[in-house]
Structure formats: structure tokens, C-alpha cells
């Protein structure tokens, strides 16, 4: 297959920084390379071959189109356009799949909220632009068909989506019912196919798949269009060049439009397809809720079709999308950065990924089906850290939504469903780190906005109907729970697990021959987590600073005392000589200690003890990070623990169930790498912090892309460690806490632009050979242009700071009136 040239470092594509796009020049990427459409309520997953699916708000409960995970071939199902030459019967797809007909030219441009795929074959070029307009619950496909040859051509076009029956899990599993409930209505003159099936009740919403060009036929029944024994690479209607005009009655509803175009040499046709979610309201006069039969009120659908029949309206919607993303990203932009990798990630891709994690938590990606979990309590709080500067109002509402899933004892539902905002009782409140992350997200939001009022906002508890306390009370409940739930060493109990979901310590040894007996009730276990202790130290420092800012010194002193109590426990019981141990198991034995045969040192306890202030005055912080460098650091990132576990240990749980080098068993978990990056910044080691930053940065992986495999523009959750059979191979890209924490690392750690309660602090920790950089930062509706100079080749230490030409004391820029533009110069010397 002929392809466009790409840089030698990556045979599959390259960064187009000027347009904020990643350009893929051959479709057979090592894995499907994904992009996300949508930024408000309507979302779509779109791969470089037009695979993926769409949904409204909740990938489990409001799925519009089907997708088949873990299939052969990978990435099956999506937004397909079949192009057929009426004269020869030649059939192909602009995105290569599913036909996989050889193309004369292929290009996919993944941008911010859109994907543009262009395919050409035998004188016909087809371009498809997929995007979700801001504020609308629909997806647009802008189609451009060109005859680039010297003779007239008759081209037949078949569109294709496969509808999901909204509730995705039942759609995939309950065929005895779902094969009987599919319903569609077609208005051929309007190019509209309406899908109205709901799994449980007949509700007042439906899906619309419409074509703005006059159509010559349609299909809505998969068996008629594809064929019972055919695949999407051989749909019988397309191969025959003739639609069936089928109407689905149960079985598998689809949407397909048939268009015939006569194209003169050089002629171009442009039109749009629309995939929309339409809610008729809870009790519309036309269709009161729960009545049957479900009568579609097509007024909204017809209005959508009328609007986007004008291609200028499509272009206007795309222009609004580009402007929206330019605005989102403008809150933080770095220029004159010595490393283009850091600049492209900080300016575009890292922030863009932060929006995806904020919107979807860990629910819907190429590695998460959208049906297994919803929003994570721990996850969503961390996602706010990398997102709050873009849209603080949305971050505020998310904090309140998250807090409402906390239980009155201080624990939390580990996950909750985005549509209902109800906690998942099947995965309850036994992760004893969850509640502390609420302190971090709330403090980050207040530092960004100065909004004290959020602390007084009433928020309910998930287990107390009608009972509401202030958000500040929720934070206090979180701190109090950890202080109450401590083990024999005065360290926090771990519960089912802490941040490391797979470290399950609620079993104990009963025999010298290492047979194990389950401890039973998690709440009866004495297993303790040093990682939670370090997180608690950090959270209490944050809360103490908040109380100082609020001038509530008595409360600040109380929190400081709790910090000191935990710090004493950490320094007394958790230091192992060269590093902090990871935990104590249910029998009181240390985990992550030099006394252990395997798993002697873990990454998480080193990171959070250092970030929480442990070891700051006795040299242990530096020693702990040096031990990380000695035992855990590799050019592909920091390994989670060493040595890897070679066999399963019941007293340690799932962490030992993985093969060595993968996931939590000595894999490179990129998320917790970032905490070590910040630890090095805290110690002033800019060269080491940046070396570590690059070790997991996807844009730095292009020369090893065949090994790395995942997208080179967004972070992955995991990279296989040195103990693995495939070291350097990445998995689980896009929806990972790595995104938010890496943006914190680069923006606040390396570049050192740090929101505080009183203003922006300028405290970079950069490589010594960087001469400087400039950052545009919008903070509390003030534009700051911050230029940092490093004439003495230092990593840290702002010695001189001028604001609008006036030198000030310290390194915190005082607050300025809203709408101001402030020029700042900082010098390291």
C-alpha cells in the first residue's frame, strides 16, 4: 500500500505542532490510535481507521452505536463510509477499514476534538471530518468527495453505523430480549433514520442518523445490509451496489444511507452526516413518560437536519470547535522552551488528555469498555488537578458531585455512574486512600480561583438521604477517618487497598510453611499503608495552609498537630534504612522492606512520604529518592517495585498475580512516576526531574514506536518493565491519572508556575542547561506573561522577580484586578 512519507523516527506519523494535530500516514498502526470527539455531554471514540462509538454522557447507559472490543481484527465497528465505483464494482473505505482495500493515499489527522481522515483510490479522493460541535448533543461527519481524475465518474456511497440499544451491557448480553425490541423509523425525503429502542422502558429519547445530501436508498436491518454470514469487510448490499431499503424489526438495527454521485473531472461534492442524541423531555405532551407505544416527536430531529443541510453551518460549527479549544488551551502556553517535546505536550496534548480524563475518568477507551466502571472517586479528584485551570466552573461542580458520593463515616464509593451520580455499591468504600484525594482537589480549586464559598456549599452523604453538610465538613470527615482508622504502628489502615488497587493485605500467615488464611472482614484487618500515611501528610499540609489563609489559626494548629502525629509514626516505624517501607500486612510483617525476599522497595511510599514532608530535616527524603534511582529507575520509566514477584502470595493479593514486569508487579506505572518527578523538583534536582519526565513521555517514544505501540501523543497508564517479556511496550493509553499529574509536573514543577491562595508563585526546577522560557498563564481572570531567565545555569532558586518592571520581595506575584495583563520577569541566580 502506498503511503505518505513520514519522519524516519516514526514510520506511522508525525506531529504537526502548528495545527495542533498528530498526522498518521499509514493506517496499520501498531495498535489502533485513538482520538476523542466531544467536550461537553456528547462523546465519541474515533480511531485512525474511523473505528469507535458514540454516547451521551454515560458510555454504559446511553450508548448510541455498537463497538466490539477484543475482536479479530482489532478495532471493529465504527463510522464507516463505503465508496464503490459503479463502473468497476471496486469498493474501498477512506479510513482503510473495514474493507482494507489498498489506497493510493491515506492520512488521518487527530486534532483537538476532531479527526480528519482522507483516503484516495483510482482518482477519487474522500475526506471525512468527524467532530462534536460545542454545546450540542450530536456528531457531524463532514464528507468531501473529489474526482481528481480526467474522466467523469459515477460513485456510489454507503454510510454505516450499527445502533446500540442504549444500555450497552444488556445490548451485549441479553439477546433473548434485545433481538426483539429494535425499532426504527425512516424519512427518506429528509435523509433521516430514527432509532428509538430503549432496553428497560420506552423513554423519551432517541437516536438520529441523518444524511444532508438527497439519498437514493437506505438500510436499517443489519442482516439485509451485511448478510448473516458476511462481515463488515464484505457487506452484501455494498458489493451488489444496491441498498435493500430494509426496515429493522428487532434483531440488529443499523443506519445506512445510499447516495449516487455523478462527478465531472475536478468536481467536488460536500455534505454532512449527523448522528444525534435527542431527548424529548421527561413528560412532553406528545409522549408522556413510560407510555407505549413510543411515539417519536421528530420536530427536533427535523430541525437538526434542516440546520446541517447547509454546509456553511457545518463549517461554522467546526470553527466554533476550534475557537473553543484555542480558548481552553490558552490558559497555559509556553514559548521559547528549549525542548520541543515538552512544549508540544504542555501546550496541547497533555492538556487535551486532561480534558478527556476529566470528562470520562477511566470509563471508555480502547482498554475500558464503558460498561465495567463509571467515574472513579480517587481518579476524578486527581483529574481535576490537571484540568482546573481550563474550566474552573466545571471543576467546581465535579468536586461537589464527587463529594456527594462520600459516605458519612468518611469512606467513599470507589466509583459512581456519571448519568445517575450514584455510587457503585458493588465496589464499595474499602479503599482507604479515596477520601483524602478530595482534600487535594478542593485545595487546588481554591488556589486556582480564590473561591472560599465552595467550602460552605451543602453536600449530602451517599448513605444519609436528606442529610447535608458543608464541603469543608466533608474534608474534615476525610481527615478524621484516617486518624481514627490506624493500626498498631499508628499508620493508616489500608482496607481493601490504597492507590495500588492490587496490594491486598487482608490475609495472614498461620503456618511456618507459608499457608495462608483469609482475615475475613476488611475492617478487622490491621494491615497498614505507608503510602496513605504519606498522602495524609500531604493532605494535612494542604488543609493547614487553607485554614491559615482563612485566618482560622486554631483549626490550622489542630491539623498541624495531626500532621505531626502521623509524621512521627512514619519516621519511627516506616524507615527501613535506605527507603520507606511500603506497608505492614495483616500479620504485622513489613512489605517493601529489605527483609523481604521479593518486593523489597516500592515507588509509592517513597513519593508520598517525600511529598508529605517526611525526611525533609534528616536526609531521608534525598536518600529515599536516591534509592528509587538506584533500584527502580530505567530509561523507560520507574518500575513500581523490585525485585518482581515470581510467585503468587496470598498475603499480598492481586499485585502478585501478574507476570513479572507487567502492571503492578514491577511494571512501569506511569501515574506514580510523576510523584517521583515532583519529589525531585521539591529537592531542586531539575536535571533528574526532567530526565524522568522524558522517560515516560509518549512524544519521546517515536524512535521506538514499534516496541511502544501506543499513541505517541498521549500518556499510557503502563509500560512493561525490565522484568517483562516485552519491556518498553505500553498499554492503556488516554484515560490515566498520568495525564493530570504530568501536567502538574511540567507546569508547576519543572516550569514552576504554581497557583497559591495568595497569588502565582514562580519557582521553576528545570534542567541547568535551559536558558529560560516564557509562559502565558491566565489565573483568576488575569493574563500573566512570565519570562524566566537562567544566566547562571541553575535548576532552582528565583533570586529576582519583577512585576510590571517593579522588583518585589519573594517569589509570589500579588493578586491583580480582573482583566489585567501583568508582565513578569524572573531570574535564577
From TrEMBL:
Domain Glycosyl hydrolase 94 supersandwich: 20-310
Presence of keyword Glycosyltransferase: yes
One of the record's GO molecular function terms: carbohydrate binding
Keyword Transferase: yes
Domain Glycosyl hydrolase 94 catalytic: 325-752
Keyword field: Glycosyltransferase, Transferase
Pfam families registered for this protein in UniProt: GH94_b-supersand (PF06165), Glyco_hydro_94 (PF17167)
Record SUPFAM superfamilies: Galactose mutarotase-like (SSF74650), Six-hairpin glycosidases (SSF48208)
Organism domain of life: Bacteria
A GO BP entry: carbohydrate metabolic process
Identification of the protein by name: Glycosyl transferase
Organism from which the protein derives: Ereboglobus luteus
Amino acid at each position: 500500500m502506498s503511503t505518505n512519507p513520514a519522519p524516519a523516527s516514526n514510520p506511522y506519523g508525525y506531529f504537526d505542532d502548528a495545527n495542533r494535530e498528530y498526522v498518521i500516514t499509514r493506517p496499520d498502526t501498531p495498535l489502533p490510535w485513538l482520538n476523542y470527539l466531544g467536550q461537553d455531554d456528547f462523546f465519541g471514540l474515533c480511531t485512525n481507521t474511523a473505528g469507535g462509538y458514540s454516547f451521551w454522557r454515560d458510555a454504559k447507559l446511553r450508548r448510541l452505536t455498537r463497538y466490539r472490543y477484543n475482536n479479530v481484527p482489532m478495532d471493529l465497528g465504527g463510522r464507516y463510509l463505503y465508496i464503490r465505483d459503479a463502473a468497476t464494482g471496486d469498493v474501498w473505505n477512506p479510513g482503510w477499514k473495514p474493507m482494507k482495500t489498498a489506497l493510493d493515499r491515506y492520512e488521518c489527522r487527530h486534532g483537538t476534538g476532531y479527526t480528519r481522515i482522507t483516503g484516495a483510490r483510482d482518482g477519487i479522493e474522500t475526506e471525512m471530518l468527524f467532530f462534536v460541535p460545542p454545546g450540542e448533543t450530536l456528531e457531524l461527519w463532514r464528507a468531501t468527495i473529489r474526482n481528481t481524475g480526467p474522466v467523469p465518474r459515477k460513485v456510489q456511497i454507503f454510510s454505516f453505523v450499527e445502533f446500540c440499544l442504549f444500555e450497552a451491557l444488556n445490548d451485549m448480553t441479553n439477546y433473548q430480549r434485545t433481538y426483539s425490541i429494535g425499532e426504527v423509523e425512516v424519512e427518506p425525503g429528509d435523509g433521516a433514520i430514527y432509532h428509538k429502542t430503549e432496553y428497560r422502558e420506552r423513554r423519551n429519547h432517541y437516536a438520529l442518523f441523518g444524511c444532508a445530501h438527497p439519498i437514493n436508498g437506505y438500510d436499517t436491518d443489519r442482516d439485509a445490509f451485511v448478510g448473516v454470514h458476511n462481515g463488515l469487510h464484505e457487506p452484501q448490499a455494498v458489493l451488489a451496489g444496491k441498498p435493500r431499503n430494509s426496515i429493522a424489526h428487532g434483531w440488529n438495527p443499523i443506519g445506512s444511507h445510499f447516495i449516487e454521485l455523478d462527478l465531472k473531472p475536478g468536481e467536488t461534492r460536500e455534505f454532512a452526516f449527523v448522528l444525534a442524541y435527542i431527548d424529548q423531555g421527561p413528560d412532553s405532551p406528545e409522549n408522556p413518560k413510560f407510555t407505549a407505544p413510543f411515539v417519536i416527536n421528530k420536530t427536533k430531529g427535523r430541525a437538526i437536519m434542516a440546520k446541517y443541510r447547509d454546509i456553511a453551518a457545518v463549517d461554522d460549527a467546526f470553527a466554533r470547535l476550534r475557537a473553543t479549544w484555542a480558548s481552553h488551551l490558552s490558559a497555559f502556553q509556553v514559548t521559547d522552551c528549549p525542548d520541543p517535546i515538552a512544549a508540544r505536550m504542555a501546550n496541547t496534548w497533555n492538556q487535551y488528555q486532561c480534558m478527556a480524563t476529566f470528562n470520562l475518568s477511566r470509563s471508555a477507551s480502547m482498554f475500558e469498555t464503558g460498561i465495567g466502571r463509571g467515574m472513579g472517586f480517587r481518579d476524578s479528584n486527581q483529574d481535576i488537578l490537571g484540568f482546573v485551570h481550563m474550566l474552573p466552573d466545571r471543576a467546581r461542580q465535579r468536586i461537589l458531585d464527587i463529594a456527594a458520593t462520600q459516605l458519612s463515616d468518611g469512606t467513599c464509593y470507589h466509583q459512581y455512574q456519571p448519568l445517575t451520580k450514584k455510587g457503585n455499591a458493588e465496589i464499595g468504600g474499602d479503599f482507604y486512600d479515596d477520601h483524602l484525594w478530595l482534600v487535594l482537589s478542593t485545595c487546588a480549586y481554591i488556589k486556582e480561583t480564590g473561591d472560599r464559598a465552595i467550602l460552605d456549599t451543602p453536600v449530602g452523604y451517599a448513605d444519609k438521604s436528606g442529610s447535608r453538610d458543608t464541603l469543608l465538613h466533608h474534608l474534615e470527615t476525610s481527615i478524621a477517618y484516617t486518624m481514627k482508622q490506624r493500626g498498631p504502628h499508628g499508620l493508616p489502615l489500608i482496607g481493601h487497598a490504597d492507590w495500588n488497587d492490587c496490594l491486598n493485605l487482608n490475609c495472614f500467615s498461620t503456618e511456618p510453611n507459608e499457608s495462608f488464611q483469609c482475615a475475613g472482614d476488611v475492617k478487622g484487618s490491621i494491615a497498614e499503608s505507608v503510602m496513605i500515611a504519606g498522602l495524609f501528610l500531604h493532605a494535612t499540609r494542604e488543609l493547614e495552609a487553607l485554614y491559615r489563609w482563612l485566618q482560622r489559626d486554631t483549626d490550622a494548629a489542630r491539623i498541624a498537630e495531626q500532621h505531626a502525629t502521623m509524621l512521627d509514626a512514619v519516621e519511627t516505624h516506616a524507615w527501613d534504612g535506605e527507603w520507606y517501607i511500603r506497608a505492614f500486612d495483616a500479620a504485622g510483617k513489613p512489605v517493601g522492606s529489605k527483609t523481604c525476599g521479593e518486593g523489597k522497595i516500592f515507588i509509592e511510599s517513597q513519593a508520598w512520604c517525600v511529598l508529605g514532608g517526611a525526611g525533609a530535616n534528616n536526609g531521608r527524603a534525598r536518600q529515599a529518592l536516591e534509592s528509587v534511582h538506584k533500584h527502580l529507575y530505567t530509561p523507560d520509566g520507574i518500575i513500581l517495585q523490585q525485585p518482581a514477584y515470581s510467585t503468587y502470595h496470598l498475603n499480598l493479593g492481586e499485585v502478585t498475580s501478574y507476570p513479572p514486569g507487567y502492571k503492578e508487579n514491577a511494571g512501569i506505572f506511569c501515574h506514580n512516576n510523576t510523584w517521583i518527578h515532583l519529589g525531585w523538583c521539591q529537592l531542586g534536582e531539575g536535571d533528574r526531574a526532567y530526565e524522568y519526565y522524558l522517560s515516560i513521555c509518549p512524544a519521546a517514544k517515536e524512535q521506538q514506536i514499534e516496541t511502544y505501540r501506543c499513541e505517541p501523543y498521549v500518556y499510557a497508564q503502563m509500560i512493561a518493565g525490565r522484568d517483562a517479556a516485552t519491556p518498553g511496550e505500553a498499554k492503556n493509553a488516554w484515560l490515566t491519572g498520568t495525564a493530570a499529574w504530568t501536567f502538574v509536573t511540567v507546569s508547576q514543577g519543572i516550569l514552576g508556575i504554581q497557583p497559591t491562595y495568595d497569588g502565582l508563585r514562580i519557582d521553576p526546577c528545570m534542567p541547568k542547561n535551559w536558558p529560560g522560557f516564557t509562559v502565558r498563564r491566565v489565573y483568576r481572570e488575569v493574563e500573566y506573561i512570565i519570562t524566566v531567565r537562567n544566566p547562571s545555569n541553575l535548576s532552582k532558586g528565583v533570586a529576582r522577580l519583577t512585576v510590571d518592571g517593579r522588583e518585589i520581595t519573594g517569589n509570589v506575584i500579588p493578586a491583580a484586578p480582573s482583566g489585567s495583563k501583568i508582565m513578569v520577569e524572573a531570574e535564577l541566580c
